[in-house]
Amino acid sequence: MPEPRIVAVGTSPIGRTDLTGRDLFSAALAEAFEGLPDPAEVVEALYAGNQSETYEHQIMQGTLLAEWAGLRNVPAERVEGCAAAGALALRHAVEDVRRGTHDAVLACGVEKMTAGGTAGATDALSAAFDRALEQRSGITAPSQYALLAQRYLHEHDATEADLARIAVKNHRNGAANPRAQFDREVDLDAVLESEYVAPPLKLFDCAPVSDGAAAVLVATPEVADALVAREAQTVAAGVGAAANNVAVAERDLTFVEGANVASETAYGEAGVDPADVDLAEVHDAFTVCEALLAEAAGFAPRGRGYESALDPGERSEGWTDVRLSTSGGLKARGHPIGATGLAQAVEAHEQLTGRAGGRQVEGADTALLLNEGGVADAVTVAHVLRRAA
Amino acid sequence: MDESRKRPRDRGPLSREDVTADSPFTLPGFFAELAEGRLTGAACSDCGHAMVPPRPACYACGSRAVAVEKQPRAGEVVSYTAVHTPPPAFEARAPYTVGVVELASGARLTGRVDADYDAVAIGDPVELTVRDPGDAELAAALDHETDWPIHVFEVR
Ligand SMILES: [Zn+2]
Asked: Does the domain at residues B74-155 carry the CATH identifier 2.30.30?
């Protein structure tokens, strides 16, 4: 079974832009294919992560983005799983290469979230909740995660300030990432004094609404070596995916079981333990998510995941030395829904190939990506990436 | 079909003929019951897990030996928050309190809580009530949903 390689990556500007979805894709594609042959000479299939057609009133994203890449009559399709769409696209690309179905597959993701304003985004995101009881209760994405955060603070020895420190840390990381939506740091008071969106979560506990696209080229080792130097490649060593149920109320509110299953699966495929992971891009759509995911991924003891904001030496016993959300995470890099899982892969790829600049984790060898969709672990996709050289 | 292969209808698995709009195993049937004040769930005959609304398989153990069971309306708050940035259809009501409630049967569901955020705490006893949808809720409803009531938890 060929061990798939990530060959090239790119993103569009992330944030509030005057570009449409296809334009954002064009920018991401241009970066990924800089110095490479045309996509038509390399790419055999395309998967496009995209949350919602309501933003731009456009489906057929697979066909559209393949067309924009100059790919004619190749298999191409949109992948949907709310905010996990990007990693689902990556997973399909990796599985196609593993199976030998294709030698090179383009995983991409795009979202034009600002198209309908905040109300449009609120409404589009609410489609991820159960229509029968959740949507009818007027629940929103921040309030869904607030239900998790409220319970987390109730069960554990953690405070709103502990969650706020995760936002401060991720803004600090984002300020060092040229791809990030936010280029400024925030201090603890700014987070704690921001308005409640859904208590205990405040505005600065929440990832922003973002436009953006990302593109990741996955190929066999042979194709990868023909295109770029080994040092510029990473290995997709493990993949895991788990769909938990839709309605949040029916889940364990303080343990994201689906994320635990997905990461354990990916670790098993890659033959690594949580302690081997040098950096992790986790789905910090809200600060509490980073705490929950640190625990589910085996980095932190139960109830101590909120210490992700601390330097490794300052964390409780039982924590690994992993660095979380070095890109700034969804919180500061931005969260263009369908592209987010691939933006996580972009960060890990840059870190593992030693090109992360001022935020470089020294000696980074292994990375975990955890991308979630729906609320929390309604669906989770995990990837373990490793250095290729 | 061989009669001996048919399981009793109240134990599942559902047959194709069981899936009708007046069965609580479907959303129209569930909401019709709820409109009459009856909250229904599915109870697993194998592991006892209770689920609202009813569904054809147990999410705890995977068994399809599920039966419709009337649910208690009393429960307690497991978690709660207040919605300050509502969807367009709920703008006039904000901020409003929502919560996760565990019924005495063990089934858990999300719903609005008819109390100020500051007046609610985890563990509070609540009771499920139903009311007709308001104008804004009707405007947001799909054609097949207009008769479906809204469930609200009242603090006891
Ligand atoms: Zn069961």
From this structure: no
